[in-house]
Amino acid sequence: MNRSINILIPILIALLTVAAWWLLNRPNEEPTWPSRIQGFSFSPMQADDDPSQDRFPSVEDIESDLALLEGKVHAVRTYTLEGTLGAVPSLAAEHGLNVTLGAWIGDRREDNEQELERLREVLAKGNRNVVRVMVGNEAILRDDVEVAELIEYLERVRKLTWLPVSTAEPWHVWLKYPELVEHVDFITIHLLPYWEGVPLDQAVDYAVSRYDQVKEAYPNKPIIIGEVGWPSNGRRNRGAEASPANQTRFLRRFLAKAEAEHYVYYVMEAFDQLWKLKTEGATGTYWGVYNSNREPKFDFTKPVVRIPHWRELAGLSVVIGVLLLAFLYRDSSTLSKRGKSFLALITYAISTAAVWIVYDYTRQYMTPATTAVGLLLLIGGVGVIVLLMAEAHEWAESVWLRQWRRPFPLRAVPDDQLPFVSVHVPAYNEPPELLKETLDGLAALDYPYFEVLVIDNNTKDPAVWQPVRDYCAQLGERFRFFHVDPLAGYKAGALNFALRETSPMAEVVAVIDADYIVKPAWLRHLVPAFADPEVAIAQAPQDYRDAHQNAFKAMCMAEYRGFFHLGMVTRNERNAIIQHGTMTMIRRKTLDEMQGWAEWCITEDAELGLRLFEAGYKALYIPCTYGRGLMPDTFADFRKQRYRWAYGAVRILLRHWRELFGTRKTALSAGQRYHFVAGWLPWFADGFNLLFNFAALAWSVAMVLYPLQVTPPYMSIALIPLVLFGFKMSKSLFLYRRRVIATFRQSLAAGLAGLALSHTIARAMFGGLVTGKLGFFRTPKMAEAPAVIRALGDAREEALLAFAFLLAAFGVMLRDDAFMLDVRIWVAVLVVQAIPYLASVLVSLTSAWQHLSADLIGPMSDMGCETTAAVDQSVSREA
């Protein structure tokens, strides 16, 4: 039954995926392209040509382009006579093409004089196929010349030739400057509704209405349409989307209207112009009916399909989705139908989006720069896919498991069958009263056979460690105190010292931090798990008892709870928990086999757990509170603690990468390797996100300084950070409400605290990659709260980055094209990237405002276990 579901669900979702592709690509009937159109705007630049660099096509190239257009068009319109372009009239005559001859007018008068001289020379040749002359193209729109100056040029040319003379401007320029009309023989208007943000379905009617508006204003002047067209690629301009399908639809609809109304027009344009990327941005490159290889970009007669090759792309997205889903389904026997359906939906959505983004990106002309960026984006995209799949997998397993496969074996065991336990309490410079509370909790343990070893390492002040020594003596022979100074190896060194002093009778070693107060049932409930000889670790979660003190600690409490009530529970299903160094128990024999704790590693607890897994041992986790400690008092300490954890994770990965990736044979299962790599993947994502942030800021600065040359990043790429952020936040809020049993306020507080650590984790990732040693930072407890200024200083890096992102967003919004969708999406990306840094500042300030009540967040109950009471009753009956 389970196997059939594993096959049926992917098939159903695959059919939905193909159906979605089909719905988006249904054929649309459009008017057919005329057998011969009125005219093309004609710039015969090849892919490597660039008139701004004085690189013009050869005469042979021009002749080849004209030959291609022969029989398809009545006339061509040129823009300049520079370089070889003065040969166009004579070459066009050989192919039966008329020419509207253009002379370029720019902002340099000497260049204009040279251009007019070239015009005089060409006109003197008397080419009969030249039917009209254009002096300037949008020169007034660009503010290259004043109206009076352009009129002077027009009058000079009109004296040179009997041909009708005009200039070309958008429709609104003619309406604004009626004096210009008096000096032309006809009006040449440009109708480019894309640039005005007009949606496709309204574009033809809009163009016609503007034509009629100019005609009504100047009824005695002939009007020709000098440019009319739509780009096949580029930026979305408000309601106007640039795409091959929209280019096809607009042109075929307009040509049908133009033929019916007998307009004189020139389609903008014959060939894509790669050189325009520098002057008009990406969109300016894609107005051609033919691409730079002189191939038609769309079909002239068949129904229009948005993506002609959608069947191949749909098939590819299904294949990728099936491969990803096969990996996720390998170990999903306990996942419900809803969980499997959720994974299938997410997987096919990710694969479809990936295929679409790659397709969309590769539709642009690939230069060395775009190719290099594309490769980097591809690598980053693979990382995003892996991250999203890991997040989705945890989401599904946290909510839709039919049953847990590895529940903790809580059971009653008679006293005479319980093993001897050695409890180790490492301490450094801890307040004596704090440590005494911990020892009182251990003294009250409901367990017959145990000892407690307190190892104070490197505390210099006797007034700190001597009262603890004396208190251990009062508690009896079970409690032994050691003060060792000097002692190398930090916490691992202290634990290895304790291991050497452990009673030979001890079969289990338990470790707690010096601030933990354990419940009496801790050992009695967890030690029986070692009845299984393969179990090397029994782990209870970290929990805390000071969340009631203020809003900051209540916020931290909510953030911690997610890992211990979500991540550790799902990891336990595949025997892949992270051993953390408090509330943990280890079989003494296996600890000796591993040669103790690794003193090279700042997170010696997680490293030992991984080594035990590599040796083939089991670990068990119970998500129930058996002891509670103290949380950091300030954001600085909170951040320092997380830096140490993330830094240690990197060092572990670097030391054990061969084992984790299977290049060195160990007993690690595929599920264990998956959880250790995928579990740390979000932290590495924070590191790579920091690189993205610096690149985003640099790009935004370039957009502000060079608005004409630098456009926003490709829109489909820019959407990825927004989607990823939204997915992670949705997952966090949903799982907190469903699995952590948190209120909405607590869920938001946890998310805020987690975001506040993003920059710290990113720095730890790079720190762990480039440095091999980090001093051990003990997490301070009961420290004096910082002032507001100190809190801002603690988050100064984050505050500066937040300010930089918001300033960049403001600067980008000042661009003239801020109304365009891709600019607004990029602004949204900048604002979203600022949120984690703003969260750091807010959380740091919250830690300074200790008077803020924890009630703002709300209390969280202990992580309880339903069977605990039953076990207690059973133990009582046995006694």
Automatic annotation (TrEMBL):
<keyword id="KW-1133">Transmembrane helix</keyword>
<feature type="transmembrane region" description="Helical">
    <location>
        <begin position="310"/>
        <end position="329"/>
    </location>
</feature>
<feature type="transmembrane region" description="Helical">
    <location>
        <begin position="7"/>
        <end position="24"/>
    </location>
</feature>
<feature type="transmembrane region" description="Helical">
    <location>
        <begin position="714"/>
        <end position="736"/>
    </location>
</feature>
<feature type="domain" description="Glycosyltransferase 2-like">
    <location>
        <begin position="509"/>
        <end position="706"/>
    </location>
</feature>
<keyword id="KW-0460">Magnesium</keyword>
<comment type="pathway">
    <text>Glycan metabolism.</text>
</comment>
<dbReference type="GO" id="GO:0004553">
    <property type="term" value="F:hydrolase activity, hydrolyzing O-glycosyl compounds"/>
</dbReference>
<feature type="transmembrane region" description="Helical">
    <location>
        <begin position="799"/>
        <end position="814"/>
    </location>
</feature>
<dbReference type="InterPro" id="IPR001173">
    <property type="entry name" value="Glyco_trans_2-like"/>
</dbReference>
<keyword id="KW-0328">Glycosyltransferase</keyword>
<dbReference type="InterPro" id="IPR050321">
    <property type="entry name" value="Glycosyltr_2/OpgH_subfam"/>
</dbReference>
<dbReference type="InterPro" id="IPR029044">
    <property type="entry name" value="Nucleotide-diphossugar_trans"/>
</dbReference>
<protein>
    <recommendedName>
        <fullName>Beta-monoglucosyldiacylglycerol synthase</fullName>
        <ecNumber>2.4.1.336</ecNumber>
    </recommendedName>
</protein>
<keyword id="KW-0472">Membrane</keyword>
<dbReference type="Pfam" id="PF13632">
    <property type="entry name" value="Glyco_trans_2_3"/>
</dbReference>
<dbReference type="Pfam" id="PF00332">
    <property type="entry name" value="Glyco_hydro_17"/>
</dbReference>
<dbReference type="GO" id="GO:0016758">
    <property type="term" value="F:hexosyltransferase activity"/>
</dbReference>
<feature type="transmembrane region" description="Helical">
    <location>
        <begin position="748"/>
        <end position="770"/>
    </location>
</feature>
<dbReference type="InterPro" id="IPR017853">
    <property type="entry name" value="GH"/>
</dbReference>
<keyword id="KW-0378">Hydrolase</keyword>
<keyword id="KW-0808">Transferase</keyword>
<feature type="transmembrane region" description="Helical">
    <location>
        <begin position="826"/>
        <end position="849"/>
    </location>
</feature>
<dbReference type="InterPro" id="IPR000490">
    <property type="entry name" value="Glyco_hydro_17"/>
</dbReference>
<feature type="transmembrane region" description="Helical">
    <location>
        <begin position="341"/>
        <end position="359"/>
    </location>
</feature>
<keyword id="KW-0812">Transmembrane</keyword>
<feature type="transmembrane region" description="Helical">
    <location>
        <begin position="365"/>
        <end position="390"/>
    </location>
</feature>
<dbReference type="GO" id="GO:0005886">
    <property type="term" value="C:plasma membrane"/>
</dbReference>
<dbReference type="GO" id="GO:0005975">
    <property type="term" value="P:carbohydrate metabolic process"/>
</dbReference>
